[in-house]
Amino acid sequence: MTIEYSHTARIPFPRRDVVKYYESAGGAARLCPDFSTTLTSGPSKGLAEGSETELEMGLPWLDGLAPVSTTVKWKARHTAYTPGESFTDTMVQGPLDSWEHTHTFSDDTFSDSGGESSLVQDQVTAELPGKTSALGKNWLVKRKIDKELERTFEFRTRQIVADLTFQQQLRDAAQKGGAASKDGAIDPTTAQTFVIAGETGLVGQAISALLRSLGHNVVALTRSSRTSRVPGVTYKRWDPSKGSLDPSLLKGASAVINLAGTSIMGRFTDDHQKSILDSRIDATTTLVDAMKEAASDGGPTTLINASASGYYGAGAGTVTEDSPAGDDFLADVCQRWESAALKGEEAGIRVVLVRTGLVLSARGGLLGAQLPLYLMGGGGPLNGGEMWQPWIGVDDLAQIYIWSAFNPEVSGPINAAAPNAVKQKEFASTLAKVLHRPSVIPTPRVGPDALMGKEGADQLALSSVKMEPEALEKNGYTFRFTDLEEALRHTLGK
């Protein structure tokens, strides 16, 4: 059975900018939908003929839950390329009998934008495996595939427009305020190098891909030998448990982004709590010490360090960056974590502390953990649902880290949460609405208690913190997502 599909997107940016985005080292990763596709390798030669890309396609949140693997490996090769105009990729390994996808770029002659708008046309021809002779079956299969392709390309359109808009905002801000000429400022218009600790995690991957799509390079710190399989990323060894990081590895970098640390998910045993704390303090201290040594030799003088809403304590309610710290375990971790980062100020390092809310992504995190339950119709308000949930879309969070690096006026704590916090019962009903599932089955606290223990449940699943992003709004950050439903529909492709 042959599938023919075409999609045309109007992009409110010049063709040269759109083509450059596709040519960038991070463009391919940014265009992989959260809800279905992960880039594992390539593109090996950009858009040129012979360039190869490897993908994993499936449902990320089902990994480890389904009795068999839900992912399919896909390998594509570029078979035609006309610079500035088009390129074609063909499946060389995958679940179909054949696949050919031609991307065509053109000026939008139907708009009055004066060349500041362009069209991206995607033409797909595919042959499904096997024979489907029944007319009804043919129609149903084609309808399903068309629907999947439509939501994929709509996701890609939103991503391109948002990323190019963000890039323009960075450039406009630097030009308007003369930021690029200020001491310690980083110029967003030229290629920069960023060092990322924790690059392989959910947030780290989003930041890395966005940086590379904007034309920058990434040095990823790793504790094991690793060879990069994607362009624009170089891996370097370090051992934070031993305080080992060669300061020369930081030379020439513009900023350090620190996301390193053991996952807080799991039961709060003594061993787990020790790992949560030690991993963060060791990583941060190691980075700060290396930055101090490298500062006089062309090293970075900007540190964007992760923190969390846990700083304020589990029952803090409404908070701003000026609110006091809490007194439970996670609050203590965040305080000591931030204190370790702030020691960099002694050497003139600008330190930004990103106190992160609940990250929304179909690839994992809070949302990924909840999806199976909701899709089975078992989602609902947790323990009455009156807890505040300070949510943030993963794309906004990636932007916040990068925006903080390029904004020399920003330092100290910032609340990385969307301005419209919701209570858990509203979160549950909105997610159920997006998924077309019920949200009527209340979930007692016995569930979180069983998974995390009472202390873990109190400080994670049952925590109630309404973070107000005052610092972001004061310094002019423009949120991509302020509406929960819109953020969920984007990452879930609904």
Structure overview:
The strands form 5 sheets. A 7-stranded antiparallel sheet has the order 1-7-6-5-4-3-2, with helices on one face. Strands 10-9-8-11-12-14-18 form a 7-stranded parallel sheet, sandwiched between helices. The chain has 12 helices and 20 strands. Helix 4 (202-213) crosses helix 8, helix 5 runs parallel beside helix 6 (329-342) and helix 9 crosses helix 12. Helix content is 35%, strand content 23%. Helix 5 (270-294) links the parallel strand 11 (255-258) and strand 12 (302-308). The radius of gyration is 23 Å and the shape is globular. It has 2 domains: 2-168, Alpha-D-Glucose-1,6-Bisphosphate, Chain A, domain 4 (2-Layer Sandwich); 178-492, 3-Layer(aba) Sandwich (Rossmann fold). It has 494 residues and is α/β, with parallel strands linked by helices.
Helix vs. strand class: alpha/beta
Q: What share of residues is helical?
A: 25-40%
CATH class term of the largest domain? Alpha Beta
In the sheet with the most strands, the strands line up as 1-7-6-5-4-3-2
Q: In total, how many domains does the architecture comprise?
A: 2
CATH superfamily of the largest domain: NAD(P)-binding Rossmann-like Domain
The major beta sheet can be summarized as: 7 strands, antiparallel
Going by CATH, the architecture of the largest domain would be 3-Layer(aba) Sandwich
Number of strands: 20
Strand fraction: 15-25%
The radius of gyration computed from the alpha-carbon positions, rounded to a whole number of angstroms, is 23 Å
Briefly note the CATH topology name of the largest domain.
Answer: Rossmann fold
Distance between the termini: 27 Å
Give the low-pLDDT segments.
Answer: 63-68
* Tally of helical runs: 12
Please, what is the average pLDDT? 91
Global outline: globular
